[in-house]
Design brief:
The complex is a heterodimer of chains A (about 150) and B (about 170). By secondary structure, chain A is mainly α. Chain A has six helices and two strands. A two-stranded antiparallel ribbon of chain A has the order 1-2. In chain A, strand 1 and strand 2 form a beta hairpin. Chain B has about 170 residues and is mostly helical. In chain B, helix 2 packs across helix 5 and helix 7 runs antiparallel to helix 8. The chains are: A mainly alpha (about 150), B mainly alpha (about 170).
């Protein structure tokens, strides 16, 4: 699989395109959920937004699979230990940590919204939940930043 | 026409944008990062709005998802500005690439799709009862919007691979 993705004219572009689609889906929906929790778009009920999170996880799944394929094309040579540079690939590893943190915060928020949002009233979520939403915004935005920088550093 | 086409691109290469983007190593990654964050905001807002138009999650009042329109518009604006940064910096890298033109055509069609929605479909939807099933025109616009914008994303991502000698 790694060979096909790495060497075929279709494999690599296909994987990075899927990766962009998954990214837009997961991060886009996560950011909207975070904005809702912070008190924006209050006409959208939490219960309804909750159902869109399933779409977000599909995006995450697409990125998990495409990301795994992409990782195999360079796992030996650049994504962990960069042979050419003689150093660990800190940017990529930071990105992976941020993605994991983003996914964990999304799962936590999904859980909290599912169980407790009915009792919140129409506005922003309780303060503790808002902190998680802010962290989520930071995690996902920085995941995109470090993801892009992986190509440059 | 051809000489104007070339003259505009030649001019672009004399502008401050061209020099700032190419002379500073951080310009390009910054523009790209903003472009990606913008596209995430746009796609996220569109997924909620377009799926709602198609009829998913009918319980959400249409007015509510409409509140996401500014997110989509601001995100598009971010991408338009950063996109101009790319094109003005290295115009021929884009104009020689058919994937770029395909992407722009899809953006234009998405704009037309939006205008049709805004001018003709949305007024009717706002007058209809919130729980009424969405009409076919709304579903068509929702589907077209998703197809077009995901095509924009794809043609954009494939820019280095299609077009001039790529792939």
């Amino acid at each position: 699989m790694a060979e096909w993705v790495r060497s075929s004219t279709v494999g690599y572009p296909l994987m990075i395109t899927l990766h962009a689609i998954g990214m837009g889906t997961m991060v886009g929906l996560a950011l909207i959920l975070d904005a809702r929790l912070l008190g924006r778009f209050t006409d959208i009920q939490y219960s309804a937004l909750h159902r869109f999170l399933g779409v977000a996880w599909i995006g995450f799944g697409i990125n998990f699979l495409s990301g795994s394929c992409l990782f195999t094309t360079g796992s030996a040579t650049k994504y962990l230990w960069n042979a050419e540079k003689g150093d660990w690939n800190w940017i990529f590893m930071t990105k992976m940590v941020l993605v994991v943190l983003g996914a964990i915060s999304a799962a936590i928020l999904q859980n909290i919204v599912g169980r407790e949002s009915a009792g919140w009233g129409p506005g922003a979520a309780p303060a503790k939940v808002q902190y998680i939403a802010i962290l989520s915004i930071i995690f996902w935005t920085m995941a995109i930043v470090t993801g892009r920088l992986t190509a440059y550093i | 026409m051809w000489s104007m086409y070339n003259a505009v691109q030649d001019w672009m290469e004399t502008t401050w944008v061209h020099h700032v983007v190419l002379d500073y190593a951080w310009s390009w990654p910054t523009l790209e990062t903003l472009h990606f964050v913008g596209l995430s905001g746009l796609i996220g807002a569109l997924i909620v709005m377009d799926l709602r138009l198609i009829g998913f999650q009918n319980v959400i009042p249409l007015r509510a998802v409409h509140a996401l329109m500014p997110v989509a518009i601001v995100s598009f604006a971010i991408n338009l500005i950063t996109g101009l940064g790319f094109v003005i910096a290295v115009p021929r890298m884009y104009t020689n690439n058919w994937s770029f033109w395909a992407k722009m055509i899809c953006v234009a069609l998405a704009g037309v799709n939006f205008l049709i929605y805004y001018l003709s479909v949305e007024p009717r939807l706002m007058r209809a009862s919130p729980s009424a099933p969405t009409p076919l025109s709304a579903k068509a616009i929702g589907v077209s919007s998703l197809v077009l914008w995901f095509s924009v994303l794809s043609f954009g991502r494939l820019l280095p691979y299609l077009g001039v000698g790529g792939g």
